[in-house]
Amino acid sequence: MKHYMAAVAIVGGALAIATSGCARHETAAETQAEVGKAKAEGAQEVAKAENQAGEKMAGADEQMNKARHDAEEKSVGATRDVSIAQAEAAHGVATARCDGESGDARSACISVADTDLAAAKARANTVQSAQNPRP
After folding, report:
1. What is the pLDDT of residues 24-45, one digit of tens each?
2. For 70-126, how does the pLDDT look when each residue is reduced to its tens digit (9 = 90+)?
3. Per-residue 3-state assignment (H helix, E strand, C coil) for 74-114
4. Sign of the CA dihedral running 49, 55, 58, 59
5. What local confidence, expressed as pLDDT, does residue 51 receive?
6. How large a percentage of the chain has pLDDT more than 70?
7. CA angle 34, 35, 39 (to 5 degrees)
8. How buried is 114 (Cβ within 10 angstroms: 0-12 exposed, 13-18 middle, 19+ buried)?
């Protein structure tokens, strides 16, 4: 019986402590004011989060645009390099053929090969400049 009474006393004390904060009831106006305050604070937090997300997205877009631009520049440069390599290879073949000539014919052949090489390099540079106007 002692244990039963002790248990009842503990439960009773716990209930008294738990309900002591509930003794005062808020008025409807107080509750409505707290709800309004919570909504306003929530709206501020959402606006702040949206603003931060917008800033992060703008930064990510800027990084993507820069990466795309860099890739395009590299691609244009690589295309130019391939065109020049092809022109230099063709020049090597042409000058090798010129070695079979002699005298003025050989000089004229080499001159044509050199002119063709210079023209091919100029075309490659012009195409690069047209595709990528920034230096």
Report:
1. 677 888 889 899 999 999 899 9
2. 888 888 888 889 999 999 999 999 999 999 899 999 999 999 999 999 999 999 888
3. HHHHHHHHHHHHHHHHHHHHHHHHHCCCCHHHHHHHHHHHH
4. negative
5. 93
6. 80
7. 115
8. middle
Residue 18 lies in a domain: no
Dist. CA 113–CA 90, nearest whole Å: 8
Specify if 9 maps to a domain: no
DSSP 64: H
Domain residue limits at 98: 29-131
Q: Strand, coil or helix: what is 17?
A: helix
Angle, to 10 degrees, between the axis of helix 28-98 and the axis of helix 103-131? Answer: 170
Task: Give residue for tokens 């959402």.
Answer: 46
Amino acid identity for residue 2 in this structure: K
Rg (CA), the chain: 42
Residue 69 lies in a domain: yes
Q: Is residue 17 part of a domain?
A: no
Number of domains in the chain: 1
